[in-house]
Amino acid sequence: MIKTILKTIILIMLPVLVFGHSPLKSVDPIDKAILTEAPTEYKMIFKSPAKLIKFEILKQAEEKGKKPMPLKLNYKPSKLWYESHVVKLPKISTGSYEVRWRTMGEDGHVIKGTLNFEVKGE
Question: Rounded to 5, what percent of the chain is helix, strand, coil?
Answer without folding.
Answer: 15, 45, 40
